[in-house]
Amino acid sequence: MSQPFTISLDSLMQPLDFDAMREAATSGGCASSSCGSSAKPDDMDEATWDKIKDHPCYSEEAHHYFARMHVAVAPACNIQCNYCNRKYDCANESRPGVVSEKLTPDQAKRKVIAVANEVPQLSVLGIAGPGDACYDWKKTQATFSEISREIPDIKLCISTNGLALPDHVDALAAMNVDHVTITINMVDPEIGAKIYPWIYFNKRRYTGLEAATILHQRQMLGLEMLTARGILTKINSVMIPGINDEHLIEVNRWVKERGAFLHNIMPLISDPGHGTHYGLTGQRGPTAMELKALQDRLDGGAKLMRHCRQCRADAVGLLGEDRGQEFTLDLLPEEVVYDASKRAAYREIVAEERGDHVRAKEQAVAAVRRNSGDGHAILVAIATKGGGRVNEHFGHAREFQVYEASAKGVQFVGHRRVDAYCMDGFGEDATLDGVIAALEGVTHVLCAKIGDCPKDMLVAAGIEATDAYAYEYAETAISALYAAATAAGGDEKAVA
Amino acid sequence: MAFKIIASQCTACGACEFECPTGAIKFKNDTYIIDAKTCTECDGHFDTQQCSAVCPVPKTCVKA
After folding, report:
1. Is residue A400 part of a domain?
2. Distance from B50 to chain A by nearest Cα, in Å?
3. Is residue A59, in this structure, part of any structural domain at all?
4. Helix (H) or strand (E) holding A201
5. CATH number, residue A410
C-alpha cells in the first residue's frame, strides 16, 4: 500500500497525456483513493479544511501540490514602508513587491486563463502588490469579478497592509474571497514609527507616531472584521533585527487573540542595491537560524507558516518555483479560452497521491517519536521538485526544504534558498561554499543524486549528504535516517 | 496655478489619478500627466495637494 505511485508530479509539468496520467496514477500498489485517509488534520473542522486544502500558502501540505499566481493589477499604495522601494522593477529579483510588468484587469484575465490552461497545479489567484489591493480597490474588484466568471473554482486571495481593509471587508466577503493576508509588523506605534515613515489616510498624509497609531488601529479592526465573517487570515510580519524581532512575540499574541489563522514571520530582505531605506542605512536581515529561533519561541501561539518563499508580486507556479517569465504579456495569445480539463485531471491524481502521502507521513512521524529515546534532534535539508518527495539532484536544487526530526515527530521548519551548484554539468566551488553557508545548522542533506566531490566537501563542513533515500516521501526518508542515526548511537557519521 | 509630475521619477502607480478631486490627471504615453487647466492645486477641496500627499516618490508631484 505504501508503494509510491509510479507517476512523478514533476512529470505533470510537461505536456500532458491524460491517459498516461490516469494509468500511472492507478497502477501503483494502492489502486484507488478509497483507502479512506484524507489529508485533513484531525483537529481541523471540515469547513476550514475545505478552504485551505488546495491553498499552497495556507496549507503546508498543499504547497507540495498546488500553485498560485499573483497578478500585479493594483499598483497604488497608501503607505510607505522602510523595506520597500516603489521604483524597483527587475525580472531577476525574487521578493515581495517586485514585478516586471503591471497589468490591467483585462490583461490579467488573459494571463490567468493562459496559466490555468498550462499549469494544472494552479488553484489560487492572488493580488499581492506592488501596491495595496484594498487601497487600489477598483482594479482589484474588476479583476476578481472578471476572472471568477471564467474560472469559478479559482480561489481568490489578497494581501494588504490593512489601512484600507475595513472599508472593503463586506465586499470581500460578497466576492467569496476567503483568504486575506495582512502585513502586521507591530502592535506598538513606537515601533511602527521606525518601520513606516508615512501613511495616506482620509485625504492627508500622516507621519511618525500618529501614522503608526492609525495604521495599528485599522489593522486590528480589519482583522477582527474578517474573523467575524469567517474569512481566514494570514498575518505576515517582517522580522527586522533590532527593531521588531523581540516584539513579534507580542504581535503573535495579539493576532492570535483576534482569530488569525496563520502567522508568517518573514526575514527582512535588505540590500543597498534595492534602494530601500533599510538597504541604504545598513539595516540587516536575520540569519536563517535567528529566524528559526524566533519561530521556535512562538510554538504554541498563533500557528506559524514556515513554508513562505517571499515570492514576487507576479509569481506563477508552485511556491518553490517561478514560471512567471513564461507568461509575460508579449508571450500571451490575443484570444484565450479556458480549458478546465487539465486542472480537473490533475486534481484527481493529487487526491490519490495525497492520501498516500498522508498515510506515509503518519507512519514516519510515529516511528520518529518511538525512536526519539534520548530526545536528540536532527535538521534535515531535502532537495525536491515538488510532491513532497526527495526527487531533486543536489546540484540542481535552488532551494532546500528543511525538516526537524525530534521527540515531536517530523516537522517542516522552513526552506533555504541557494544558487544551483551545478551548471552545465560542472560544479562551482564558490557556489558550493554559498550552499554550505545557507545550510547553517543543518545536519543532513537528502537528494536524488549527489557526486562524491560535493559530498566530501559537505562532510568537511559537518553535513552528511546522501542519495540513499531518492524518490521517497520526505518524512519517510527522514524517519529512516533518524532510525539509522539512533541505531548508530547518535553517531551521525554512520548514517551516510 | 497647477501641479506637474516629474515623469522620469513617476512609478506609474496611478494613485494620484483616482485621488485627484478635479480629474486633472490622466495616463498618457506610459506616464501620468496633470492637465494644468483642470488642476486647482486642490484649492477648495483639501488643505494639501492630494497627488503630492499620496505620491510614493519624494519631489515628484510638484508645483509647475
Report:
1. yes
2. 7
3. no
4. strand A198-201
5. 3.30.420.130
A204 chain-B contacts, CB cut-off 8 A: 46-48, 53
Q: A205: closest CA among B34, B60, B48? A: B48
Report the pLDDT value the prediction gives residue A2, as an integer from 0 to 100. Answer: 38
- Per the domain annotation, does A349 fall within a domain? no
> Is A138 near chain B, with CB under 8 Å?
yes
Q: Are residues A302 and A360 in the same domain?
A: no
d(CA A433, CA B26): 51
Same domain, A106 and A252: yes
Domain around A414: 355-494
Residues paired with residue A156 on neighbouring β-strands, in sequence order: A125
Q: Which residues contact A254 (CB under 8 A, 6 or more apart)?
A: A187, A220
Pick from A331, A364, A386: which residue ends a domain? A331
Look up cell 498516500; give the residue.
A356
Our CA-based measurement puts residue A208 at a distance from the nearest CA of chain B, in whole angstroms, of 15
CA A31 centroid distance within chain: 31
Q: How far apart are the first and last CA of chain B?
A: 8
CB contact under 8 A, B54 and A205: yes
- Give yes or no for A75 touching B (CB within 8 A): yes
Q: Are residues A220 and A265 in the same domain?
A: yes
Say whether B46 and A203 touch across the interface (CB within 8 A). yes
Among the candidates A297, A331, A365, a domain finishes at: A331
Contact in structure between A108 and A79 (CB atoms under 8 Å): no
> What residue in A sits closest to B17 (Cα-Cα)?
A76
- Residue A420 Cα distances to A183, A379, B22, angstroms: 31, 21, 53
Residues A322 and A421 in one domain: no
With CB atoms and an 8 Å threshold, state whether B56 touches A204: no
The contacts of residue A211 (CB under 8 Å, 6+ apart) are A79, A192, A193, A196, A197, A198, A199, A201
Q: What is the pLDDT of residue A100?
A: 62
Separation of alpha carbons B61 and B64, rounded Å: 9
- The reply to whether residue B15 touches residue A80, judged by beta carbons under 8 angstroms, is no
Of B13, B18, B53, the CB nearest to A204: B53
A115 lies in some domain? yes
**pLDDT digit string, tens, across residues A90-116:** 444 556 655 667 888 999 999 999 999
- CATH number of the domain that residue A81 is part of: 3.20.20.70
- Whole-number Å distance between alpha carbons of B61 and B57: 8
Residue ranges and CATH numbers for the domains of chain B are 3-63 (3.30.70.20)
- B10-31, pLDDT tens digit by residue? 988 999 999 999 999 999 887 8
| Least Cα separation, residue A79 to chain B (angstroms) | 8
pTM: 0.80
